[in-house]
Amino acid sequence: MAPAALAQAPAISDDVVRLGLILDMSGVYADVTGKGSATAAEMAIADFGGTVLGKKVDLLVVDHQNKADIAAAKAREWYDTKQVDAIMDVAGSAPALAVLEVARDKKKIVVFSGPGTERITNDLCSPYSVHYTYDTWSLANTTARATVEKGGKSWYFLTADYAFGHTLQASATEVVKANGGTVLGAARHPLGSSDFASYLLQAQASKAQIIGLANAGGDTVNAIKAANEFGLTKGGQKMAGLLLYINDIHAIGLEAAAGLTLTEGFYWDMNDQTRAWSQRYYDKLKKMPNMSQAGTYSSVMHYLKAVQAAGTDEPTAVMKQMKSMPINDFFATNGRIREDGRMVHDMYLFEVKQPSESKRPWDYYKLVATLPGDQAFMPLSKSTCPLVKKTASN
């Protein structure tokens, strides 16, 4: 009896399922990931019951200070010496790509809700990685296309000078040109810029109808605030935030943000489910969650369900289960993880309300359009992911 019982026992390594988050806790992305993402993960673990297959679920959180080398070193340490089973988010595209390579080398699971670069599921895809919430292709395909179709034909970009900004500008440029628009130029700024004056003067001088913001977090907030101070919008130019979070709108204020179009994978006030979960989150942090924070909750829950179903925390078995199980929760309906690691789900085009339209705190968006996942994300036919090519050839 004993050998049979042992053979059937759940194969949980070191008797703990240990998850990690490598986040920006104090920098330009602290408000859009940071404590909010950590809180969302804690909520998911608690809602799952705190254990899986009878074993405790632990969560480790560290600040990478927006440095790729720190993120990679921490991931290596966690996988090698802390027995971390899965890293469930890495804030920022450059740190994320560094961790992606460590996870590939260690054959360990990594899931991303904070970073945007589409390379995670394109040329740099891995059998052990999932891009869960959004990516640069989906943002550009939704926001840029809608803006061009509404008459915003000429563009100038303000671009964060690292992997995320570069891929977002490239994706948006492709969409603008494909829909009959033109790109007049771009100005690249360092991550965490405090002074956007010279970049905005270049944008103003370009005479472009649309100033496309290929940046995120505090950089986007500062750029929009500065543009209002410079009077760019009064002069007829319009801002298009290619990645805007509800936290950013809250920081900018409706007076300055009203009329902006943006793309999100989640909004707290969509339906009864989103409102119920978001109220629980709000009770903890006194702010509403954004899509990356909601995505972190959903992805942690999905991972734990996959461990439960697989009967083990062994990475290959868990990833197979994650890709076979649909995702149905407040974040996604009939979401699915493709062979390239892309979690496909609906994306939403919103317009920021006028101050007079907002009825209560955090009532900031009105829905313009819903894009089904197969339209919102890069089709597999365009992917350069080697995993897709292997699948297609089989």
What's the number of helices? 15
Q: Rounded to an integer, what's the Rg over CA atoms?
A: 21 Å
| Main structural class | alpha/beta
N- and C-termini, Cα separation: 42 Å
Arithmetic mean pLDDT? 93
Low-confidence stretches: 1-9
The number of distinct β-strands equals: 15
- The best one-word shape is globular
Strand order of the biggest β-sheet: 2-3-1-4-5-6
How many strands, what sense, and barrel or not for the largest sheet? Answer: 6 strands, mixed
Identify the quaternary structure here: single chain
- Percent of residues in helices: 40-55%
Sequence of secondary-structure elements? HEHEEHEHEEHEHEHEHEHHEHHHEEEEHH
Strand percentage lies at 15-25%
Organism: Achromobacter seleniivolatilans
InterPro entries: BCAA_transport, Leu-bd, Peripla_BP_I
Protein name: ABC transporter substrate-binding protein
Family: Belongs to the leucine-binding protein family.
